[in-house]
Amino acid sequence: MHRLRALALAGVVAGAALVPATAAAPRTMAAPPPCSEEPRENPISEFTSYDELLVELDRVERVSTGRVSVEEVGSSNRGRGMMLARVGTGPKVVFITAEIHGNEKTGPDALLDVLDYLGTSDSSAAQQIRERLTVVAMPKINPDGASLDRRGNDLTWQEVQSRFPQLAASPPPWNYITDQRQGDDYSQRPGFDVNRDYHPNLEYQPQPQDFPGSSDQPGWFLSPETQTVRDVYKGLQAEFGTVDTYVDLHHQGACYTVPGTDEFVTMSLSGKFVADPSTPEGSAFADFADTYRPEYSKQLNVAAYNALQAAAEKNPAFGNITLYPQDINLPGTGLGAFQLNGSGAVLFEVRGQTQTLGEQHREMLTKTVHIGLGGILSSVASGEVEQLDPASYDKIPPTDRGQRTLGRTTDIED
Ligand SMILES: [Zn+2]
Questions:
Q1: Mean of the pLDDT values across residues 131-158?
Q2: What's residue 31's pLDDT?
Q3: What is the annotated signal peptide range for this record (predicted)?
Q4: Would you state the pLDDT for residue 14?
Q5: CA 50 to chain CA centroid, nearest Å
Q6: 263 touches 320 (CB < 8 A)
């Protein structure tokens, strides 16, 4: 891995050496530096750790003088409390989760910034959000994976079988990780890709015939982490009727580009996660055709996109936003499951996980998430989101996923 990195650096240096020091090199002529997806060990200490999150949430709650409330709503498999923060008293609920993949770390930091803002700002914009919305945030929904700085959680199939005796003779599911993944060795500490463990039927109980499953099939709520998020979602349904908006914060490959440019994608967006339940492709979930609101998901994405394009006047990187691939059917994701249940849904995919980018661009990428969330919250609170044209979503440029990548590309997961 270090060899590839060294090659990349050598390429940059060699390219520069070709230009005489006195000449004003036309920047557009230089080949862009290559980019590597090869996993490597990177420091992560600038990101908020689990223990730091507890301290920060406590601080935010305190300085908000009653506006932000924090509670522990469940426990990870290794006993870490699953934390939830709530701010606002409005009739519409916006539910936001982050770091279900433990190597995707800008989400918790951005959520802390948003909570701090909503808890302390007396601006009219913050007041409007607090009056019209209830914002519910879970900043680290895979705290065991986060502490290991890896994608999966820390849970063995044997532990699952002991809790679900009906699975004693079943094979482990397809998303159980026991080998190498994204540079992490799971052989001594297996785990699951928790973001394939959801089921659109929130009352589902695991059945032996549903194993090992596959990516286009729903999950099973095997992990304590997804059980907790599901229970929070059900509680919000009971309280608010519908969970108006659900946003899940992720990271993706480090080397994707904006089509037709040499610009790296800062963040990709999506509002589509499952086949439309009113079509033959989505017929497995036809029962959800009445609650599925794809146009509203598009409007929410446009709200985030517009806010970032406006911010690009200050930093062009905020404008490098693309659409995540749309030809997916992932009913085992939180976004897919909750979207079928009637939530407008938004996926944020920030550039580069910790094994590739580490802390590089941390502040800018965290700010990108913050701006995008701010666009959604203000647009939903003001009602402007209802006026946005869903067709604008389809005009967001797609993601160019291949041009400048060095190293393995088969191991990139979002
Ligand atoms: Zn992810």
A1: 98
A2: 63
A3: 1-23
A4: 35
A5: 17
A6: yes
